Amino acid sequence: QATTETRSFEAEVAQVLHLVTHSLYSHKEIFLRELISNASDACDKLRFEAIAEPALLAGDGELRIEVSWEREARTVSVRDNGIGMGRDEVVANIGTIASSGTRRFLEALSGEQKADARLIGQFGVGFYSGFVVADRVTVLSRRAGAAAGEGVKWESDGQGQYTLETVELPERGTTVILHLKPDEDEFLAGWKLRSLVQRYSDHVAFPIRMPKETADGADGAAGAWDTVNSASALWTKPRNEIADEDYQAFYKALGHDFNDALAWTHNRVEGSQSFTTLLYLPAQPPFDLMMGGRDERKGLKLYIKRVFVMDAAEELLPGYLRFVRGVVDADDLPLNVSRELLQQNRQLDRIRGACVKRVLDLVEKLAREEPEKFAAFHKAFGNTLKEGIAEDAGNRERIAKLLRFASTKGEGAGQSVSLDDYIGRMAVGQDTIWYVTADSHAAAAGSPQLEAFRARGIEVLLMSDRIDEWMLGSLREYAGKKLQHVAKGELPLDESEREKQEEATKAAEPLLRKLKGLLGDRVAEVKVSARLTDSPSCLALADHDMAPHFVRLLREAGQ
Ligand code: ADP
Ligand code: MG
């Protein structure tokens, strides 16, 4: 047939396919979640496009997903009557890798990082997970609005090539047919597929239908259908009607995560502007976060009156909360809102403010009531949260209150001391929160600068995370107390100490002059100091100087 052609995958697709099929084996059943998630996205897209162009629904407005299997043919199929794809879209979406997220995924996997099933959905390579259980995948698709003769058949064994053919398809939407590998028969059973749908996709907002099972357990390819998921937009229900398991199941589908969420907050705001937020804290950092990617943020879906509009994490959450996953459903935004308009929408500012407040409220509640969860949160996201000190001046004090640090009065390298703990232990008359920064905890804890503070029983916070110096640039004060590097400013001396220092300075006058002469321009001043007890000398900084290891970091970065 003239319309059939064979093409090769883009080199990177072949690589992704290989990695996905080899690394996902222990979680192979997630192929179903990923295909259903794509089908649900396709229904979302059609519903959205149909607002401007109702004719796209063409008499079939009941959007749905169907999962079926055929024992004889040994296939499992996932069908949707969503947006569908034209020929070019099929090539672009499943023959090439468009998103830079996928490139990062590849880089991550080809590096030391062990391939992990959690990566797959999060990086938009879900479609390929079908090849974990199938040795051949067929996609039949017809774009909404296209004629029956413009259907596309795509087929591949996942070995580097695929074929493409124009075919006649009676209905719009997409069918993905998995031709199962010889030892994957377990998926040819209705109960098995059903339990997977319920486990991973229960709260997909469209009905997922499966063939009614007959007494003899025959094929599920035709006949009557049952809806097997709850098909509810979970966030629209009242909180007291939602069980924890429902929240967790919804999170897993939303965040493409196998693990439970750490905590969540679900709120409805009524008033001149009404909206619902359901926001989750993951238990572990999502991979995009670990790789430092601040661009192309995913994870917060914007709905308008239950219609999915776009992934709007960047518009709805500041960078320092980019680990949050969830849903925002607004009642009053125009449905045809574009990303550009969103960025300057007043209503959105309010929603954004509410999201930030809810997340901070939630973290504060964990700190107050669930110390173990809070510790897990701080371990996973504490350093990301620190960015907020510089980024969100309006919430600086609230964020600072949530941070925990290692300290000379804490336990080892553990970060468990809050600024409030520190203030609670301050000596009478002390008005400064002292800290030291270094490249490592050991270097911070071993700094000779600490001697004078130890001798006087003054606590010092030990900072050794890369972000700390930058954060401290914006955190000059907390609760009316100044924060200061131990190498800067004047030590708190009492009357007799001050007298002693003056005498010592007088006595050492010739030595100091000689040293200054020897060191020349390399130092600004040579002084007698009360900072030391054991070491003979140390470098000290003027108030406006940068900390020595920060200078080194800048030099390494070529500044
Ligand atoms: P992601 O869903 O994160 O984009 P996938 O690998 O799961 O990544 O899917 C790749 C792309 O293929 C989708 O973005 C979409 O454009 C297209 N696609 C996959 N399945 C369908 C479907 N059922 N209907 C329409 N388009 C689909
Ligand atoms: Mg997908």
From TrEMBL:
Domain Histidine kinase/HSP90-like ATPase, by residue range, is 27-184
The cellular location(s) given in this protein's UniProt record come to: Cytoplasm
Entry's SMART domains?
HATPase_c
| Alphabetized CDD domains for the sequence | HATPase_Hsp90-like (cd16927)
Under the heading InterPro entries, the entry gives: HATPase_C_sf, HATPase_dom, Heat_shock_protein_90_CS, HSP90_C, Hsp90_fam, Hsp90_N, Ribosomal_Su5_D2-typ_SF
Keywords noted in UniProt:
ATP-binding, Chaperone, Cytoplasm, Nucleotide-binding, Stress response
Instruction: Name the source's superkingdom.
Output: Bacteria
Which region ranges are annotated with the description A?
A: 1-339
Q: What family does the database annotate?
A: Belongs to the heat shock protein 90 family.
The protein's role, per its UniProt record: Molecular chaperone. Has ATPase activity.
Subunit structure, as described in the record: Homodimer.
Q: What protein am I looking at?
A: Chaperone protein HtpG
Q: Which species is the source of this protein?
A: Luteimonas endophytica
